[in-house]
Automatic annotation (TrEMBL):
<feature type="domain" description="Metallo-beta-lactamase">
    <location>
        <begin position="12"/>
        <end position="181"/>
    </location>
</feature>
<protein>
    <submittedName>
        <fullName>MBL fold metallo-hydrolase</fullName>
    </submittedName>
</protein>
<dbReference type="Pfam" id="PF00753">
    <property type="entry name" value="Lactamase_B"/>
</dbReference>
<dbReference type="GO" id="GO:0006749">
    <property type="term" value="P:glutathione metabolic process"/>
</dbReference>
<dbReference type="GO" id="GO:0050313">
    <property type="term" value="F:sulfur dioxygenase activity"/>
</dbReference>
<dbReference type="InterPro" id="IPR044528">
    <property type="entry name" value="POD-like_MBL-fold"/>
</dbReference>
<keyword id="KW-0479">Metal-binding</keyword>
<dbReference type="GO" id="GO:0046872">
    <property type="term" value="F:metal ion binding"/>
</dbReference>
<dbReference type="InterPro" id="IPR051682">
    <property type="entry name" value="Mito_Persulfide_Diox"/>
</dbReference>
<dbReference type="InterPro" id="IPR036866">
    <property type="entry name" value="RibonucZ/Hydroxyglut_hydro"/>
</dbReference>
<dbReference type="InterPro" id="IPR001279">
    <property type="entry name" value="Metallo-B-lactamas"/>
</dbReference>
<dbReference type="GO" id="GO:0070813">
    <property type="term" value="P:hydrogen sulfide metabolic process"/>
</dbReference>
């Protein structure tokens, strides 16, 4: 399995590519507007971008998901509860996207945004245990995401603590965490 973090330094936005060495396909999670870094990274590994996934409706950057889909012919995946006017394959809690040895399991983690999802990443060439989780705008480094952008802050915080955080805490201790923002975030 190939795993690559791509960071936009100006805003601290962290995005991810996960690829299968077996089948040469890769997925992009939360792509930014400038899609060239993803195309270049895939080219450098000889991989085809076949799946593009947004974790939620972003308030801090413009998604490059549909540009990437247009450029590559990849399939677009969005959270089941997202409100959009364009076509995408909707991801419900618990479903998995599988290609080659890679499995991306969807966890619905509301609180920051009602529709937000995380991806639990498994590399079946290593084993069935998860290797890492892409926490997008849910779990940050030493913090949780803002709960007050899409709903009342108290309600959002309660949802984060009661529904979403326990699911992340229940994961095995060795599960690596890769958030959607790092230092430098606005
Ligand atoms: Fe967000």
């Amino acid at each position: 399995m190939w795993f690559q973090q791509l960071i936009r330094e100006q805003t601290g936005c962290a995005t991810y590519m996960v690829g299968s060495s077996d089948c040469g396909e890769c997925a992009v999670f939360d792509p930014l507007w400038d899609i060239e870094p993803y195309l270049a990274a895939a080219r450098s590994k000889g991989m085809n971008i076949t799946r593009v996934i947004d974790s939620h409706s972003h308030a801090d950057h413009v998604s490059g998901a549909r540009r990437l889909v247009e450029a590559t012919g990849a399939e677009l995946f969005l959270p089941e509860r997202i409100e959009t006017t364009y076509k995408a394959t909707l991801l419900a809690d618990g479903v998995s996207i599988r290609f080659g040895e890679v499995e991306l399991e969807v966890l619905h983690v509301p609180g920051h945004r009602p529709e937000q999802i995380n991806l639990l990443v498994r590399d079946h060439s290593r084993g069935a245990e998860p290797w890492c989780i892409l926490t997008a705008d849910c779990l940050m480094v030493g913090d949780l995401a803002r709960p007050d952008l899409a709903q009342d802050g108290s309600a959002g915080a309660a949802t984060l603590f009661r529904e979403s955080l326990p699911r992340l805490l229940a994961l095995p201790d060795f599960t690596e965490v890769y958030p959607g923002h790092v230092a430098g975030s606005t």
